[in-house]
Design brief:
The chain has 336 residues and is α/β, with parallel strands linked by helices. 32% of the residues lie in helices and 14% in strands. Strand 2 and strand 3 form a beta hairpin. Helix 2 (48-60) crosses helix 10 (316-328) and helix 6 (127-138) packs parallel to helix 10. The longest helix is centred in the N-terminal third of the chain and has 17 residues, at 17-33.
Amino acid sequence: MPAQERPNADSSQKPSKHVKELQKQYAKQQRRKTPTNTLPHPALDIPLDHYTSFVSHLKSSHRVLALFGAGLSVASGIPTFRGAGGFWREHDSTQLATPEAFERDPALVWQFVNYRRHTALAAKPNRAHYALAKLAEKNPDFLAINQNIDGLCLRAGHNSASLLPIHGSLFDLKCSSSQCGYTETNNFNDPILPSLAIPNDWPISDARFPLSPVPISSLPHCPQCRSLLRPAIVWFGEQTPQAARARIHTWLDAGRVDLMLVIGTSATVWPAAIYIHSARLSGARIAVFNTEAPDSEVEDPSQTLRDQDWFFKGDAASVIPDVLKEIIGAVPGTKS
């Protein structure tokens, strides 16, 4: 008998209904083989065993600690000011965000702060912010240590009772004088003063475009003592507030920690690293969500992942909603 001719395979053709049905049946079969009701989205590089073991552990976890870093807000358009992106104009951002820089050139620092406020107000919370807010709502014993100062977690509906902003907020102000206790919260004026207004389409971050001079008299001043106001954030070289540290320690001492989520941060600097170590001592397994894997060669063994821990690589806005979907349901914009 003459051999049957094989149909010409055209890779550009769409899958037939038969192929689609086979794919559906295969997906159902895979679900039956796993202890979870959902599977990781195929576009994400998430090992199935990691996904199922993490979801199972999260379902059984009562006390969950989370640590939010700058990577959580990247998809919202918030610069991390780390690595190659660590400069604003020609200035190292870590050198601008210091008490010494404010004392030396308050106008420059306020222009930097005003740019960050403007960027944060123009940004929108991403799917990771919304997913974590829903997770906190479902878990009465959830505490998130938030290192971000952009306000996006609160705008996503995250309950403030379970959110601890240890670095403060760009939208809170305080007097720069140690003799004055004036503070102001939730100042969302953009610009904070007309003298700091950013002209439309003006690339203020580009050092090739000169900054308009701002006299000291036109900067924000304390209404009580007339000293300069400053953002109520923790600058480099300053300690996190004692009240924030005390709340974390009280929460950790209240009982066993089942799980710690480390999101968008390498957590290699103090005090972030110590929180991971403390959670481990309290029995927690660690799940890291970041674009880069934790450094396996660090000298401190408390910062390395162990066999029972998880690492999920990718942008938080894509990965977080996917791995949490079985617990919180679908987040708008998330493929199921």
